[in-house]
Amino acid sequence: MEEIELGDGSALDPAAGVTYVWSNLNVYAGGGTMFKKSPKVHILKNVSGMCEGGQMLAIMGASGAGKTTLLNVLTYRTRKLEINGDIHINGKAVDKRTVAGVSAYVQQEDLFTGIFTVKEQLHFNAQLRIGKEVSQRERRKRVTEVMTELGLNKCADTRIGIPGRVKGISGGEKKRLAFACEMITNPLLLLCDEPTSGLDSFMAQSVVKAMKRLTGLGKTVIATIHQPNSEVFAMFDRLLILAEGRVAFLGEVSEAHLFFTRMERPCPANYNPGDHFIYSLAVRGGKEEECRQFISHVCDSFRDAEGKDMDKRIEKAMKPPKNGDPLSNIKLPKSPYRATWFNQFWAMLRRSALEVIRDPLLLGVKIGQTMFFAVVFGLIYLNVNQKGSYDVAARNLSSVLFIFITNLTFSNMFPVITTFSAVMPLFLREHWNGLYRTDVYFLTKTLVEIPIYLIGPFLFMLTSYYMVGLRAGAEYFFICSAIMILVSNVAVSYGYMISCISKNYQTALVLSTPLTLPLMLFGGFYVQDR
Ligand SMILES: Nc1ncnc2c1ncn2[C@@H]1O[C@H](COP(=O)(O)OP(=O)(O)OP(=O)(O)O)[C@@H](O)[C@H]1O
């Protein structure tokens, strides 16, 4: 059978789609650190399941059942969790790189660059997530296609918005945009965490229909789903119901009806089956013990009857095919990044520049703050260079310059680390999604923001120049100022570097002081030495 060439350059033999299998997954959280112990929580308990190419699997369950944790484990996006169990694709154990190479993941939380319009966000994704073998024309066509498919044409030129500051597209449009950003890569395996939440029933249906269309191309679609309406529910081929971290049911939708009838909870006529299954396995307030006993009974019954057949199928699906490489129908990218270094650099440079131009708040706050401190320091050290003998005045000036350098270094570095912590979730998601490398982010951010951090210290030193009442040695003052401006910019760069490397706010903060100290001392000794 002929291979399907996908938009991202990968290929899929429709006769052998991606069979995704997971077996006996046990996930634990907590346990504490060496300093502080906390109880270990067993989140997923012996969870097994599978989804074949051309199928759409719904993962359902009450809130807290473990749906999101399962999807995070299946996409290797877990941090600080202990995981045991096996994950196989087409019968072969796979690692994070393989899963990242074949899959796309629509996460529950929508994270975007708020200053972008919907179309710009999709073009940005098309530039960085589609392989270089796909032409620009094809990419533009793909953007137009997904916008039409997901009803995003109306808000194509509307900014996404920044929560609490810039009103942008609606919550439902954001959800569809998140979905469109993943669809654009034409993935072999699509995982979605609640893709329909926040959507009206028409839009929820459109999103699920778009997912269903992917299964028609032989792709594998797995989604957690909350309160699906009957039409949406009917579109899923298979159902995995989780309850209290255990598998309560796995199989076809029609089999679920039979199973719940056997459990003496038949779905009433004209009742939404999805709602009924979730409600039956929820832990209700005031009846916790009773509900937990029922859940335990349902999970045990499934494991000891229907689950046995499923286990056999899973066991079989985990064995590699007798002949050939089980992953031979998948062209895995050599690098986790689809775009070249230069393409990543230009796309990120443009985005970083637009962020400053379209949201000049940071620029305004930074300059306003610097001017405020320039005036305060200027008033404290007003005409300091005019007082006493020439030697005393010179010594005073050196001390004042040292204080200036301390202020400029720290006041540039800490805001960088603090503002970076706000964009850290987006950076981490895009970086792990293979959009760009850490060094590209660091370089483009630094390059774009350096002019801002040049203007601030320049105005600071200019104000100080007039306020300290320079008696002589203007040349000395200007050289020291240049050194200070340089040092304060290296501090900005340091701030970004520490944040990018540590990828963690607390670590960046802890590292910032010892790393800034040599810089400050260099500047300090320089101004003292003259
Ligand atoms: N890192 C963690 N530490 C401790 N408990 C955790 C951690 N992560 C998840 N849990 C717990 O595991 C359970 C499952 O969480 P999960 O987010 O997977 O549920 P969910 O089914 O997706 O819920 P919802 O539908 O409300 O999003 C919850 O009780 C949650 O509190």
Automatic annotation (TrEMBL):
Membrane topology term: Multi-pass membrane protein
Main localization (coarse): membrane
Name of the featured protein: Protein white
PANTHER family attached to this UniProt entry: ABC TRANSPORTER G FAMILY MEMBER 28, PROTEIN WHITE
Recorded GO CC terms: cytoplasmic vesicle membrane; plasma membrane
Electron transport among keywords: no
Keyword Nucleotide-binding: yes
Domain of life: Eukaryota
Membrane spanning residue stretches: 360-382, 402-428, 440-464, 476-496, 508-527
